[in-house]
Design goal:
The complex is a heterodimer of chains A (277) and B (282). Chain A has 277 residues and is α/β, with parallel strands linked by helices. In chain A, 36% of the residues lie in helices and 21% in strands. Chain B is an all-alpha fold and 282 residues long. Helices cover 74% and strands 0% of the residues of chain B. Classes of the chains: A alpha/beta (277), B mainly alpha (282). Chains A and B meet through helix 2 and helix 4 of A and helix 7 and helix 8 of B.
Chain lengths: 277, 282
């Protein structure tokens, strides 16, 4: 369904963010993309819906090459890709309902959307999704009145109302507490299963990735260095992806004092706390 | 990472061993070169001293002028609203009409120009064109434009309205463009990612982010335009300024005082109302 071939992205600054990436995602497959900061995870999923323009290579989505599309066609392709963001990226001054309905913008004309007169089915769908993500009471609240977890739920509803084939999920839990992180990941994966949705989920938290995805891809310096099942993600593989580190320390639950503790560490406090919950 | 002996052999972070560390710190200076810093500072004072010295102060003239100033201020103590009330009220009404009309016209033109002058929305040629209009509008003071428009359209409020509309464009478009340039990109990206059209993107991704500021600036401009309507009237562009000018010409300081008090009152009132509205739209 999604096939990425020899994708290269070189930024104007000269940074080579993606170095010939080949990747295929099947219909309904939930894939976690892990790797250190700056490995190109974000760039990769942003190339898929062309928020970032690839330098070269092909991205075939339902058989059509995204990279070559002109704007009208690109918009129609984007309708079928839902995106979920790290900082939620809700339009802060719009209501929850408007934020969710904005997922239908690709399907309705300008005046309808300007006057907020969306088709009945869209409105019904929005109410259904708002209820589904547990925000029934919040429909008319402004997005900036919500808590982090609630905002991400709105973000999920906005992506799903597009009725997409694939979800592009960029660090969905990085701004959330451990408990909310798990709830959000569970919600995303459940919804994917329910709707036969494929998903690429960028995620820092290796434990969460292992828990909620069927496939893990490891990215390092713009190249794929691991592609396999969550169970095969052994310490030597993590070293390959992230660099040298005492990976067993997490499992042994050493106290913070004893642990090899670095700021850019993946086995973050968040993860350790998640385990303690 | 600083590597220091710690309790844990493989840890990178230490909390102890502070004895050899410096205990004083000051922020790095804005101008690094010490010599340059002093030269600039002393140069500034020398310049100030010389320039104040070059002002020719005619103490005699000031002494005589004090008398007139006193008369002026005494006029304020005893403002005369009733003597020329018809002139004053007509002037005020005309000024208010000019203010509202020019602000509405100005805003209507400023919005598209403001969007065009935002580098993150407009392609380079559009950007340069719109920035050009803004620069043109901002480089002339209202009085100069008013003199030109009075020459073209004759005395009266039409010249005033056009002047104030033109001045509004420079003010509002520039500040709107700057606000658009500083929006949160992720919100607009999220709308883009839904497959929205360009107009929908403006309506959902950009407009909600800049609306409070646009409303605030418009209200602010409304009271600037009222004050300016008094000024452009002095050169014949209609409004309360014309009445004020006549009052000064006739040495009727009591009437002038009444007019100024009304202007102050109206500006304060609009300040209060706009503050109230702005608080509501945040």
């Amino acid at each position: 369904m999604l096939e990425i071939k020899q994708l290269v992205k070189k930024y104007n600054t000269g940074d080579l963010a993606l170095n010939s990436v080949d990747l295929e995602v099947q219909k309904g497959q939930v894939m976690a993309l892990i790797g250190p900061s700056g490995a190109g995870k974000s760039t990769l999923i942003r190339c898929v819906n062309r928020l970032v323009a690839p330098t070269s290579g092909e991205i075939l989505f339902n058989g059509e090459n995204i990279v070559k599309m002109r704007s009208g066609k690109l918009r129609r392709a984007r309708r079928n890709m839902g995106m979920i963001f790290q900082e939620f990226a809700l339009v802060e001054r719009l209501t929850v309902m408007e934020n969710v309905l904005s997922g239908r913008l690709g399907y309705v004309g300008f005046w309808r959307s300007y006057l907020r007169k969306f088709p009945r089915n869209d409105i019904k769908g929005a109410f259904r999704l708002i209820e589904k993500v547990g925000l029934d009471a919040m429909t008319n609240k402004r997005a900036d009145e919500l808590s982090g977890g609630q905002r991400q739920r709105v973000g999920i509803a906005r992506a799903l109302i597009q009725n997409p084939d694939i979800l592009l999920v960029d660090e969905p839990t990085a701004s959330l507490d451990p408990k909310t992180s798990r709830q959000i990941m569970r919600l995303i994966t459940e919804l994917c299963e329910e709707n036969q949705l494929a998903a690429i989920i960028n995620i820092h938290d290796v434990a969460l990735a292992q828990m909620f995805s069927e496939r893990i891809v490891g990215l390092r310096e713009g190249s794929i260095v691991y592609d396999g099942s969550p169970d095969d993600l052994k310490p030597d593989v993590l070293t390959e992806i992230y660099g040298k580190e005492d990976w067993t320390a997490v499992r042994e639950r050493k106290s913070i004092k004893d642990k090899d503790y670095k700021i850019d560490d993946v086995s973050s406090t968040e993860e350790r706390m998640a385990e303690m919950l | 990472m600083i590597n220091m002996p710690t309790t844990s052999p493989n840890s990178g972070v230490s909390v102890q061993h502070t004895s050899a560390l410096p205990d004083s710190w000051s922020p790095p200076p804005f101008i690094k070169n010490q010599l340059l810093r002093w030269v600039l500072l002393i140069g500034l004072f020398v310049y100030l001293f010389l320039s104040v010295g070059s002002l020719e102060v005619n103490w005699n003239r000031i002494y005589e002028g004090l008398d007139r100033g006193a008369k002026f201020i005494l006029g304020f103590m005893d403002p005369n609203f009733s003597g020329r009330w018809t002139d004053i009220s007509e002037g005020i009404v005309e000024s208010l009409v000019m203010t509202v009309t020019s602000t509405v016209i100005g805003i209507a033109i400023s919005i598209p120009i403001g969007f065009g002058a935002a580098r993150n929305l407009a392609p380079l040629p559009v950007y340069l064109f719109c920035r050009g209009i803004i620069a043109l509008s901002r480089s002339f003071q209202e009085i100069i434009i008013a003199i030109l428009f009075v020459a073209i359209f004759g005395f009266g409020p039409l010249a005033g309205v056009l002047t104030l509309s033109f001045a509004t464009i420079g003010f509002l478009s520039k500040l709107l463009a700057e606000d658009i340039e500083s929006i949160d990109k992720s919100q607009s990206e999220a709308i883009q990612a839904t497959g929205s059209g360009w107009w929908q993107w403006l309506n959902y991704g950009i407009q909600p982010q800049v609306m409070p500021r646009l409303i605030g600036l418009s209200l602010y401009r409304l009271d600037i335009n009222f004050r300016e309507s008094a000024v452009v009237g002095l050169v014949g562009a209609g409004g309360i300024g014309a009445t004020l000018n006549t009052a000064f010409d006739r040495y009727e300081y009591d009437t002038a005082a009444a007019i100024l008090i009304l202007i102050i009152g109206i500006v304060m009132l609009s300040e209060y109302i706009s503050g109230y509205i702005r608080a509501g739209v945040q």
